[in-house]
């Protein structure tokens, strides 16, 4: 049995349903929620103040890997902020760790996605931060569209089809890009990844898919996982 520690904004058992669809048997999640009301700097700062205590609490368990998700929390302090988060984690626990934005960057590089389009459920201002973060890592967001939702409770109610409907025009209008990025684990995009990849012939990187890929690689459990996009199907040769 492997144990992944997961620190995630507004984490719930419902959120984990999609995670367990992807994960191989023999892996369990020990989760801790970061409570974010609305997507504002004030809320992110409150989360930041309690973050170290959350890590310490989770590190009491015999973890095999620690993952920190929440693109907006991770990016609100600017490009490279994921590295600072991981430095803090390393000072608390020796458990291998990563963040979802680190995973997204690694996943995009692994698939050769240096020019992408981005579809998100977030407000425009939060999209701008994500684009600056990715640009700092050498990934250009050529175009983006957003739905403008300011909290995860509202995003959770959106059907997966909204992701397909938002992303499809972007890919039609920009056939020159390498692929598509869709953030937010509360936006239930998992079921449309394969559909988008088949229809447009472009790889898709999403929140849950990317961090699971990163965690499995980090634990040396890299076997291809089919049905959820090229990123997970590309896992190989590490177990």
Task: Report what the structure shows.
The chain has two domains: 2-99 and 209-222, Rossmann fold, CATH 3.40.50.12500; 103-206, 3-Layer(aba) Sandwich (Rossmann fold). The strands form two sheets. The chain has a four-stranded parallel sheet with strand order 2-1-3-4, sandwiched between helices. The chain is of the alpha/beta class and 239 residues long. The chain is globular. It contains eleven helices and eight strands. It has helices spanning 13-22, 41-58, 71-75, 81-92, 100-111, 124-136, 152-156, 161-173, 193-200, 207-218, 230-233, and strands at 2-9, 27-34, 65-68, 97-99, 115-120, 140-146, 179-182, 204-206. Helix 5 crosses helix 10 (207-218) and helix 8 packs parallel to helix 9 (193-200). Helices cover 47% and strands 18% of the residues.
